[in-house]
Amino acid sequence: MSAVQPAHVVLLGATGFVGSAVLRHLAAQPLRVRAVSRRPAAVPDGAVADIEVCPLELTEPGAVADVVADADVVVHTVAHIAGSSTWRIDDGDRAAERVNVGLVHDLVEAARRRRGRDRQRIVFAGATSQVGAHDREVIDGTEPDRPSDEYSRQKLAAERALLAADAEGVLHGVSVRLPAMYGYGPDSTARDKGVVSTMVRRALDGEPLTMWHDGTVRRDLLYVEDAAAGLVAATHYVPHLSGRRWLLGTGRGEALGDVFRTIAETVARQTGKPPVKVVPVPPPDYAEPGDFRSITIDSSAFRGVTGWRPMVPLVEGLCRTVEFCVRGGEAAL
């Protein structure tokens, strides 16, 4: 399928974990990029793109409409993060809903006002957790959605609003659902709050790595740079992807016990200290059913349209992540 090169991309959430990686990929292309975030984004070294840094509070009335008015493509990576190390939010959290759902409604309303202009193309970073609990371990995006936590319910509501606007002819909307992500590289500028980097930090502190199960639960873990490359690939194929949800993943379910033991061993090699233990512990009260469910992502549909595929194997991604943390890279974030 033929790709369409956008001229002007507006990136919402440019300093976030995913958004900052997307900015690094966009910066390598001959584009105009407006990098929007609460605090000023760092322009990647050697950027080819013409990058406009735009610090802005997007939840302010009219902010979204103003910042996306002249965009060919909008990449929406903003998400409400409840704390320093988790995406979990409480039921009925209005502040989270304003960010996770309200900003998409703002994008839709801004698109409605583009009378006489081409339909704006919007790529939305969703989450594979939106599907909820299913008997199938391998999911491909054809499953009915039954999200079990508030974050996933809000992401699903936002996705549905976007795709409804696409069906109405208001815009071209694409939802790219991302799996569990992890990782640091030499140019990382945002903190990874996921389980992999959390365990790396614990291992560096000499603490045991704890699991809420026996370690056989499997996760499809995607390196953040591969996730960002997928979102950027979507910007080139919006006409072919429009109106649907698409899944990204490696196609491999990794047993978390094995992942944690690899982290412990990798940290030990980097520090010269003995590897920390990996131990099961009772799950906390806030654990969700999905925490104990194995999941692997079949992303063949997205790959078939865009040609995207993950490039960083898990062991290499873990090594990069550990090296970054050992060098003290997180302290600068």
From TrEMBL:
<dbReference type="InterPro" id="IPR036291">
    <property type="entry name" value="NAD(P)-bd_dom_sf"/>
</dbReference>
<protein>
    <submittedName>
        <fullName>NAD-dependent epimerase/dehydratase</fullName>
    </submittedName>
</protein>
<feature type="domain" description="NAD-dependent epimerase/dehydratase">
    <location>
        <begin position="9"/>
        <end position="236"/>
    </location>
</feature>
<dbReference type="InterPro" id="IPR050177">
    <property type="entry name" value="Lipid_A_modif_metabolic_enz"/>
</dbReference>
<dbReference type="Pfam" id="PF01370">
    <property type="entry name" value="Epimerase"/>
</dbReference>
<dbReference type="InterPro" id="IPR001509">
    <property type="entry name" value="Epimerase_deHydtase"/>
</dbReference>
<feature type="region of interest" description="Disordered">
    <location>
        <begin position="134"/>
        <end position="153"/>
    </location>
</feature>
